[in-house]
Amino acid sequence: MAPGIASSAPVVDQAAAAKGPEVRTVETPKAGGAGLVTKRDATGRAHSVRPATPLKAPASVSAKAGKSATSKPDAAAVAKAQVTAVAPYFGARPADLVAQTSTLSEYGSQTRFQQVIDGVEVYGGEIVTSLDKTGALEAANGEVALATYGTFPAADKADAAKTTAQNAAVQAVATRGKLDAGKLTAKLQGPRWFDLGLVTRQPGSVAIPVYLYDVTGAGDVRWQAIVHASGQTLLAWDMAEKLNRVVCDADHTVIQTGNEDVRCGTVFKSSRSEGEAPSAVQDVNQVYEYFGDTSDTYASLGTDLTELIGVDYGDGKGKALRGTVRICVDGGCPYANAFWNGEQMAFGEGVSTDDVTGHELTHGVTQNTSGLAYLWEAGAINESLSDILGEFVDLTNGSADDTAVNRWQIGEGSSLGVIRSMSDPTKFGDPDRMRSGNWFDDEFFQDNGGVHFNSGVGNKAAYLIADGGAFNGQRMLGIGLARSEVLWHETQKVLTSGADYGDLAEGLRATCTKLAKKKKSGMTKADCAQVELGIKATEMDFDPAVGKPAQAPVCDTTGAKAKNLFKTSFAEYPDGKVVRGEGWVLGKGEGLEGSLVDTSYSQDGDDSMLGVVTDPEGSISLQTANSTKIKNTKTYLRFTHAYNFYNVFIIFGVRTGAATLEYSDNGGATWKDTSALTWKNGPTLDPNFTDDTVAAWHGNSGGWETSRLDLSEFTGKQLKFRWTGHGKDFADLIPGNWWLDNATIYNCSK
């Protein structure tokens, strides 16, 4: 992390602030990249660059290239030169990419770059480079924000804004968690640009100014909250999870915050530290042993766990893996869980097992490597990695419970019992592939976007890759535990905080290819073929089927043919087909500064029309230029569209817009709403806002969907149509976006 970034005062464009919010384009992703770009998202951003042949280090850093695997400064310098070359495919400005950390190993180096705009970090905006020992680029993974909307408060108003935001963060957590706000403490992590598209599959890319807070309270109450710079809370999510070693015994003490008051070495005295005789308390000895088992597993992978996640509380024990056992919380004794609080472990009585301990300590590893957000698919991968590495500890430590029955089960032997099955996630209702009906869409944000449920996809992949088997049309041989451990640990290093399962697939591929070049790893090309089968079996390259945008049929009768009366694919403007008002732009045809349109974001690949609503009281319209005569029954208007009105923040009532379609049968003199007509995937009332009286498209489509309006009742009439985006409460904080593509009026043969 660059010094001062987290707490630096953002640069404020006073002129822009004075004239109101508008979208500011940061960069547009570069097209092409054959032989380099292996994954792009809907906005055209590269997520993965994997050259067919590693890219040799540029001449400007050739003197440092050979030392990039042994010197962190040299690794960062070579990586910067390499990322500069590929940044355009991600839509990143090289100057905005700041090297945070470099990790060295016998296989080469990984350097993590943070996107920084106007001195402020972008939440989830990262690119990780992977270099071989010669400094050649083997892969780059990540994504960045493409635009910003809004500004941070001016310097003289910043303190007041932060106070307002801090109070809002506390109140939001109190509301969501049903907690006493008076017992919560919020700590500012810093200003951030927040682009929802970096951590979800929502369309578009625009970053808004926010403050990020850690909010803590009694016991293991550990939340994070994102508050808009204006003071509106957007998100609040629960972070609690439902070798030198120092273990302390709380002896059933009630913990209030789960932070300083659980510290082993200050609040509680050591019950057993490195090299000391066993304690009289069984939980102390178990955690001590499990810390050792987990440390041994990571040591075998080249990672010093104590150095990476240990903490020194100044008690003379030095930097150590620390844990406090037998804690209680208000209303709960014994406490039936365990957690990593960002510094150390805490356990309720009887909860400690080898896989649970490995699981929780791996959260610490994740925190200090990929930093996977505990939200949506990134959070599911976060959970899955903890299960995977925790189970590797369990399966390789020679414990008595390593039986065939317990293999790939999480939590056996604890007071909780088995809580997940990695070999068959469906036993606990979790998905085992991306298109499983068990995928949890989490529309109302009950599980941080599905972090616990949807971890089943990664868990199933780990099981199949290690042990093999037949699943979902694929038959795998398995590569064994030893190679699996290396594969998953090294893959962890190349993921970014907003990674989805498609990014995990790319990370596994890149990592396996890298390892297969190193004889010492034991990995072979044949093993990588098995890894690929595991990726295919769990469908990581696909979007989830649950919650997928709906599609309307063209015709209802099998074999019926459609005859077009009107058609536009929004490939150019003007096209004689539509007339637009202010707020609508065409992407590729114009490339207007600040349009937030990327040329790749279209349903058919040639272009799309985008409407951006920024006025809570305003509206923007696009209409057909001429009337179309409806001659027959079975005549329809059908169009493809995507919208992003941010009802993902429904927990705080944040909505930025809605969309409607109107018609005119008198040449545009008057307009009527179509919502009462016969639709497939038409507008609806938003059940979350009872004050809405007009049906509309609202919330988020999650991608391209199609809607179809039956025009049969208008036979003999001439009709024009008008697509209108309407501003809602918070459009001045977050823009409301509506993309249109492939609009057609046609009739179906009988």
Please explain how this structure is put together.
The protein is of the alpha+beta class and 750 residues long. 22% of the residues lie in helices and 26% in strands. Strands 2, 3, 4, 5, 6, 7, 9, 10, 11 and 12 form a 10-stranded mixed β-sheet that branches. Strands 24, 26, 27, 30, 33, 34 and 36 form a 7-stranded antiparallel β-sheet that branches. Strands 25, 28, 29, 31, 32 and 35 form a 6-stranded antiparallel β-sheet that branches. β11 and β12 form a beta hairpin. α7 packs across α8, α8 packs parallel to α9 and α11 packs antiparallel against α12. The longest helix has 23 residues. The N terminus is likely disordered.
In short:
With 750 residues, the protein is an alpha+beta fold. The protein contains 12 helices and 36 strands.
Silhouette: globular
Low-confidence stretches: 1-19, 591-600
Number of helices: 12
Rg, nearest Å: 27 Å
Name the structural class: alpha+beta
Gap from first CA to last CA: 65 Å
Quaternary state of the chains: single chain
Major β-sheet annotation: 10 strands, mixed
Write the layout of secondary structure elements.
Layout (H helix, E strand, L loop, with lengths): L13 H5 L4 E3 L11 E4 L5 E4 L12 H4 L6 H19 L6 E9 L2 E10 L2 E12 L5 E7 L3 E3 L5 H23 L7 E10 L13 E9 L5 E7 L4 E6 L6 E5 L4 E2 L14 E4 L8 H19 L4 H5 L11 E5 L2 E2 L8 E3 L4 E3 L6 H15 L7 H21 L12 E2 L9 E2 L34 H12 L1 E3 L2 E3 L4 H12 L8 H16 L8 H13 L24 E7 L9 E3 L3 E3 L22 E5 L5 E6 L3 E2 L5 E10 L12 E8 L7 E2 L5 E2 L24 E6 L7 E10 L8 E13 L2
Helix pairs in contact: 5-7, 5-8, 7-8, 8-9, 8-10, 9-10, 9-12, 10-11, 11-12
